[in-house]
Amino acid sequence: MSLREVESRWRVYSSRLYADAVGAFIVEGQSARLSQAALETLAVVAYRQPVTRGQVSQVRGVNVDSVMKTLSARGLVTEVGEVGGALQYGTTTEFLERMGMASLDDLPELAPYLPELADVDGEGR
Q1: For residues 70 and 51, is the Cβ–Cβ distance under 8 A?
Q2: Which domain holds residue 54?
């Protein structure tokens, strides 16, 4: 067992040696893998939170209602507020724990992987 700090709280973790057995016991048949769509949606929420479903759909270019329900059911995203009648979502402590992060500050920088803003806007250089 090990003790880790996550969002100013302490959590007990099992040894990596027994992670498979402990995970199987806790999940009891549930699939722990996320689809590519779920991973992409989760990334948008993580980096842009708080964010509405509509905003996530706009970034991804597809409807994300069912994916957001899946992520919410798995405890990875949660409602964090409301703006203009639309619910806003953010990641949970469960998300941080599964990603092995203490806070959202541990998310890697996206800048090296993004095109220049002018290229995205179609203005070119």
Answers
A1: no
A2: 34-120
